[in-house]
Amino acid sequence: MRQVTSSAGSSAPWWRDAVIYQVYVRSFADANGDGVGDLPGIRSRLPYLRDLGIDAVWLNPFYPSPQADAGYDVMDHRDVDPTFGTLTDVDELIRDAHALGLRVIVDLVPNHTSSEHPWFRAALAAAPGSRERTRYLFRDGRGPGGDEPPNDWRSNFGGLAWTRVTEPDGTPGQWYLHLFTPEQPDLDWTNHEVRAEFETILRFWLDRGVDGFRIDVAHGLAKDPEMPDLAGGYATSGPAVEGHPHWDLDEVHDVYRAWRRVTDSYPGDRMFVAEVWVQSPQRLALYLRPDELHTAFNFNLLLAPWDAKALRSAIDESIHELAAVGAPATWVLSNHDVIRHVTRYGGGDLGTRRARAAALLMLALPGGAYVYQGEELGLSEVTDLPDEVRQDPAFFRTGGAELGRDGCRVPLPWSGQEPPFGFGPSGASWLPQPPTWAELTVDRQASDPGSMLALYRNALRLRRELPALGDGQLTWIEVGEDMLAFRREPGFVCMTNVGDEPADLPREVLSGSAVVLLTSGPTNPEGRLPGANAVWYAMG
Ligand code: NOJ
Questions:
Q1: CB within 8 A of 237, min separation 6: which ones?
Q2: Looking at the DSSP assignment, which residues form a beta bridge with residue 240?
Q3: Is 216 assigned a catalytic role?
């Protein structure tokens, strides 16, 4: 496996500049023909991922689960849901991935469990104040008879964040907190049993050979013990702001310091990547102090509109704040929770041109990058799914006001002319694919040098070959206001025209002996770079 050399010249761990491919397990490849992707399906497609040129895969949750939130409602953290396979399948997947030089990251969901988890079932069967209840956040209700919820906190998916239980004797009882669906009760992270249990879970997967963990809702574990009302002062969703009573409290950092001691006790460069939605890069950096987590998703690029100023300040701020704690930046354009970026950038031909340019921009930036499955095929959001096939709880809990995230989770098109486009051996796919995806299958794009897939493959190959790319620094070149141009040493320049009109190239590119390495558009630009285009140069 590749060891990289940082700009300081020392050997740096792989995760400082890895390109990590997100496999949304239920939508990647279906081996058994039930219409849902599975671990053997992923295993059969590992050569595709090796050829794409990525370094690691992150697998979304595959644990036993009633699937109230697509597997983020975990019943047993040490097993595999039969829909996705078995523990043996995980072992074989890890073994095959390693043999191909790919690392494997699994998803850890510590903020909540499934309401079907044995701990929660035990809590419901036990009395208020019992040890079983202290693993979760049970509280008495307010008002006469405790009929009102303990406070005004809202679920991230709409509706109240509290559900009232019926006590074992049949009377209306306490309420429990769930920042997501009622089927995802929040754990109480002040409870030592909860802390010990998750350290055991970490060891279970580390012993099986995983290279890292993606931490779900990493900024949510600690809650203000007073549980004050939000009183309109804070939003439930969106990046957390300081002072929020249930997001990004300082107490979460104790948990990560303990986890770091666990991964550090294992050989190899095992790592964490945290999902932390906070408003300021300064708050993000706190999670990445040397004795805490290795990396975190940096959502600044994903949240920025297609606008040169906004993109540049997202890039600058991220690099600056993360460097202060010695952490590498990571870059993300899409994932399973947001609208696919071809669509965010305007959709159709324009959205695709911008997405191609964004890919070259992202892969040239210092640090690591995440590729969400299907972005390498240029897939757009599927916006016209019929209501009856939708599965995202966000759709149901908002009465359809929010379409939810199903549109970015549609199974991948691999081959053929008709759905399910080689997704599995039967005609089924758990969400229907648009017939137009016949043009976007892996098979079709693999033989087209102008395809999005070819662009990703070329960019990822160059990224491995060029010492300037990956970890390190960038220096901006000042050009026109729509142009994002930067230099990386030795001898590399990336230029992205974020505007719609052709823009002048800087003199140092035109007058030097610059060689075009890769362009996102169909032609070699001469003197001017067309709108929504990016280009990589080797400088003489
Ligand atoms: C973040 C995950 O990415 C999302 O898919 C999930 O619904 C929530 N956390 C709750 O676990």
A1: 156
A2: 278
A3: yes
CB 72 less than 6 A from any atom of ligand 1:
yes
Residues linked to residue 59 through DSSP beta bridges, in sequence order: 23, 106
Across 250-271, average pLDDT: 98
* Predicted confidence (pLDDT) at residue 2 exceeds the cutoff of 50: no
Give 419's DSSP letter. T
Which amino acid does the sequence have at 448? D
Q: Is 216 in the pocket of ligand 1 (CB under 6 A)?
A: yes
CA separation for the pair 308, 178 (Å, rounded) = 39
> Ligand 1 pocket test: which of 217, 219, 370, 396 has the largest number of ligand atoms within 8 Å of its C-beta?
217
Give the closest residue (by CA) to ligand 1 atom 3: 337
Alpha carbons 347 and 185: distance in angstroms, whole number: 37
Show the tokens assigned to 21.
């491919």
Cα–Cα nearest to 7, from 364, 472, 363, 470:
472
Neighbours of 288 (CB within 10 A): 23
pLDDT at 9 over 70: no
CA of 217 to the centre of ligand 1 (A): 7
Are 402 and 158 in contact by the 8 Å Cβ rule? The answer is yes
For β-strands 103-108 and 212-215, DSSP reports them as parallel
Q: Is 24 in the pocket of ligand 1 (CB under 6 A)?
A: no
Each residue of 301-349: pLDDT tens digit? 999 999 999 999 999 999 999 999 999 999 999 999 999 999 999 999 9
